[in-house]
């Protein structure tokens, strides 16, 4: 009976809001909305067979139909380029599978782990790094499985932080989220709850005061990390949703995926990161595109990424700078891959340091024994 409890909950919640927020899940609906050419239906049906398709009414409202460079369309409307699969691309691009001790948990670093209660999202990003795992019909944690996952966390005292991820955890009804929050708050060694979500952009109406309250509990500090890739995603409703979370006492961070044709230039990113800071969201990570299947058209090279990040360093406030990171394929973890400014130590112990404009300066040895 408890099996599929989360799924039922998610459906209930969706159902309650269905008429005001229609979500398009079929290629034919995208044609009706002017987001896809009729001639492409057949190819896109094939894309949709392999990878989940959904775009919320809120996102459609932000899109400019007919504009081939529209950042919303590019991120959410399927393209036949997704059928081009490169040999280096992987079904499990960041290597979650080897770090799954119990269903719903990915435990790669000692002090923090991912808890994935649900594998659906309100809409599907075409470059999703978990695209082989998310979507309707994907498994969700049953009540028993969730209890087992919580048992694992309880038994591992080194776990200081639990990251709710998925899918998108904010698709769950607040009642369910409040249950999870309370269960985690009751575990003494868990001090921080972090949610990774794109709901404030995809379906901002879900983020009401009840939701914000559901994420908080005494003895537990909650952070929300918003996935957002372009300033156009931050329409009036998204801004209000973010405001409600921060006003409820929840600090916010952001993560952005570097995407060719969407945000792969410094000016676009500056605009996004500045707006986030204005909205009280601290830019946290800029992700290099993962090697997810059928996403080659979205990836830049690391060299291109570094050159963009260099430009950010020259003309963007420090509090608006995220860390450029790569999730190493195979499950080896995330590392910063931004440009290096510090040269190697010379024989005399001196180094050179590059400033933001590329000029080199000497820096004396010191601090160590040799410095006397
Ligand atoms: C990304 C990730 C985290 C969080 O990493 P931070 O660097 O702390 O943001 C934790 N666990 C797994 C498995 C991850 O993929
Ligand atoms: S919100 Fe995250 S998990 Fe969901 S489709 Fe987008 S990238 Fe994938």
TrEMBL record:
<feature type="region of interest" description="Disordered">
    <location>
        <begin position="1"/>
        <end position="26"/>
    </location>
</feature>
<dbReference type="GO" id="GO:0051539">
    <property type="term" value="F:4 iron, 4 sulfur cluster binding"/>
</dbReference>
<feature type="binding site">
    <location>
        <position position="128"/>
    </location>
    <ligand>
        <name>[4Fe-4S] cluster</name>
    </ligand>
</feature>
<keyword id="KW-0663">Pyridoxal phosphate</keyword>
<keyword id="KW-0004">4Fe-4S</keyword>
<keyword id="KW-0413">Isomerase</keyword>
<dbReference type="GO" id="GO:0016853">
    <property type="term" value="F:isomerase activity"/>
</dbReference>
<keyword id="KW-0479">Metal-binding</keyword>
<dbReference type="InterPro" id="IPR022447">
    <property type="entry name" value="Lys_aminomutase-rel"/>
</dbReference>
<dbReference type="InterPro" id="IPR058240">
    <property type="entry name" value="rSAM_sf"/>
</dbReference>
<feature type="domain" description="Radical SAM core">
    <location>
        <begin position="107"/>
        <end position="320"/>
    </location>
</feature>
<keyword id="KW-0949">S-adenosyl-L-methionine</keyword>
<comment type="similarity">
    <text>Belongs to the radical SAM superfamily. KamA family.</text>
</comment>
<feature type="region of interest" description="Disordered">
    <location>
        <begin position="341"/>
        <end position="372"/>
    </location>
</feature>
<feature type="binding site">
    <location>
        <position position="121"/>
    </location>
    <ligand>
        <name>[4Fe-4S] cluster</name>
    </ligand>
</feature>
<dbReference type="GO" id="GO:0046872">
    <property type="term" value="F:metal ion binding"/>
</dbReference>
<keyword id="KW-0408">Iron</keyword>
<feature type="compositionally biased region" description="Basic and acidic residues">
    <location>
        <begin position="347"/>
        <end position="358"/>
    </location>
</feature>
<dbReference type="InterPro" id="IPR013785">
    <property type="entry name" value="Aldolase_TIM"/>
</dbReference>
<dbReference type="Pfam" id="PF04055">
    <property type="entry name" value="Radical_SAM"/>
</dbReference>
<keyword id="KW-0411">Iron-sulfur</keyword>
<feature type="modified residue" description="N6-(pyridoxal phosphate)lysine">
    <location>
        <position position="334"/>
    </location>
</feature>
<protein>
    <submittedName>
        <fullName>Lysine-2,3-aminomutase-like protein</fullName>
    </submittedName>
</protein>
<feature type="binding site">
    <location>
        <position position="125"/>
    </location>
    <ligand>
        <name>[4Fe-4S] cluster</name>
    </ligand>
</feature>
<dbReference type="InterPro" id="IPR007197">
    <property type="entry name" value="rSAM"/>
</dbReference>
<dbReference type="InterPro" id="IPR003739">
    <property type="entry name" value="Lys_aminomutase/Glu_NH3_mut"/>
</dbReference>
